[in-house]
Write a structure and sequence with these properties.
By secondary structure, the chain is α/β, with parallel strands linked by helices. The chain is built from 15 helices and 17 strands. The protein has two domains: about 350 residues, Glycosidases (TIM Barrel), CATH 3.20.20; about 60 residues. Helix content is about 45%, strand content about 15%. The strands form four sheets. Strands 1, 2, 3, 4, 7, 8, 9, 10, 12, 13 and 15 form an eleven-stranded mixed sheet that branches. Strand 7 and strand 8 form a beta hairpin. The longest helix has about 45 residues. The termini are far apart.
Length: about 450
Amino acid sequence: MTFSNSSENPRLIAFYLPQYHPIPENDAWWGKGFTEWRNVAKATPLFPGHYQPHLPADLGFYDLRLEESRIAQAELAREHGIHGFCYYHYWFNGKRLLERPLEDMLKSQTPDFPFCICWANENWTRRWDGEDQHILIKQEYFEEDDRRHIRELFRIFEDRRYIRINGKPLFLVYRTENLPDPKKTAEIWREEARKAGIGELYLARVEGIEEVDPGLIGFDAAIEFAPDWQKKGPRVKADATDKDSLLMKYLNIRDCYEKNYVHLYDNLVQEMMEKPVPGFKRYRCVTPSWDNTARRREGANIFLGSTPEKYQRWLESALAYTRQHFQGDEAIVFVNAWNEWAEGNHLEPDQVNGRSYLEATRRALQGSPFSQSDFEETAEALRKIREEQNSDKWLIAQYEKALAASQAELADKIRRLEDGERQHAASDERVRELLNSASWRVTAPLRWGLDRMRKFRN
């Protein structure tokens, strides 16, 4: 079906993860051939009714080195009203990572689909959250790097497909709070752009951590990040009856709730839409869902209860807000995300929901209601998942998995004990051989004399 968008509608821009192809650095850090798909495929439900893993449907486990994969993504997005992609861009003092999909797209000029970039200026760590523990590659900030960085981006900004606001290339920074002096960095970037003939830039900060007036740091606007971690509602607690308590204890279900942050999607939507209008430009952002247990088995954020209908209503509200507060090129709404599979937030079709979230996106833009048949179809798919995960078969599988893990852990401990015993036995044998050797007996008087001298000195 061809999408027809009203000229009054804001432009929808979806965040885009370019992780789905191997690179040497990920080979070294995570194992040969690693891509995000490895995290996605190994995910398992942590409790009955927990929707994991999220597995792709229409596009499959694609490789972003293939042009046909990128074309298929763009065609699917355009068909459902997405205006363009915002590629995450990784820059570490001149070193780029995961740049191939963007570079291939620039070189081939396909797909013919609008795009912009967001500098994901976090450290890469083993915790997948940009914090400082177990750093794999670190961000460093200094003036010369600011200049070199923005100059490298000019050729990208000049691409005919690059998204502009009032003629200015739109450039996002994921965490301006990480910059030692964001206002100075913005001044340098603008100065270099003018000198190069690029003209003015449109700089936007992503509100990932805190709310800051972008004008105070030399930026033009802010962009919500969804989920807003300050607006996610109360945590959901495990609720076990006496009958279920032993099973919950054995399967670590209560432990899963306590070690992760489980929230309701409904509360997230309500709290984000109730945020007061700020005294600066802030673009709205929505997310179809979120669950990053594929990346983190502890400390993950899980939002329960997302449906295409609820997502559509949230998006409709964000669109209405944007029409009221923005005009022309500044009428933009972001979606997080197009393909963040390991975070459970993707518009790309999966094997449970199919194209339901994409179709909800199109309906929101066209002002079409969510039909009862659409709702019932999605509800039935989710009901089957929950039914399967509450079945005896699922519980037995979890029991066997826990038992196998315990047996493997016990076998490993036994192996280490046996290795230690063998090492001690070998050490004892070497000592016996030394004591029985001719050299030990011949040097005995000398050792006795040295020992007597040490005692005399003391």
